[in-house]
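Hi all, long-time lurker, first post. I run a small reading group and we've been trying to get comfortable going from sequence to structure in the token notation. Rather than ask abstract questions, I figured I'd post a concrete chain and ask someone more experienced to write out its structure so we can walk through it together at our next meeting. Sequence below, copied exactly:
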Amino acid sequence: MLALRNLSTGYGRLEVLHGISLEVREGEIVTLIGANGAGKSTTLNAICGLVRARAGSIELGGRDITRLPTNAIIRAGVAQSPEGRKLFSELTVLENLEMGAYLRSDSGAMAADFRRVFALFPILEERKHQAAGSLSGGEQQMCAIGRALMARPKLLLLDEPSLGLAPLVCQQIFEVIRGLNREGTTILLVEQCAHSALKLAHRAYVMETGTISLSGKACDLACDEKVKAAYLGE
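-- Answer (accepted) --
Happy to help. Here is the structure in token form:
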């Protein structure tokens, strides 16, 4: 579904990604793990067109999307729940979810998707008229994922969904991610909690200073001595 080929990009004079290649197959959960500053979030932002490629290519379903504007990439079937949630804090939960569907005109299907999001995260329905900025951290993360789902993505990009959340809330979020994948959503997951990410994913890539240092089945990387020492605290 997604293929990055020798992708390089960065900010100003700083190059962050140095010719990385990875793929996400339809129906998979693939995770990127690595230390802060390794380039994980930049990779997701490049896929969405928020950071422009300097070299290499990005393909979605065999189509080159490297130079497409972000709105066209969203129309093509990509949506991101960004690091830090980045909700519109003064808007209500419902209005934030509506923002996720701003490119859609199929109002009947949108109503069904609102029901789907509220079924996944019942607390959001209870809080739907509440300002998003007044939600707890876990509720904000649910709202951010729900907003991305309102775009009906074929490929869902999740950037640090467990960041700053209590363990029980993290468990709930990961269960929702697993359920979304079972329903057919392909997911590329960036996650600091490598242990949870490797348990959840089918395959994984390890990033170090803008390069891919290891890749393989998630279960194999979870047993790799270098990965265990560097990221799993073993």
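A couple of things your group might point at:
The chain has two domains: 1-77+153-234, 86-152.
The mean pLDDT is 95.
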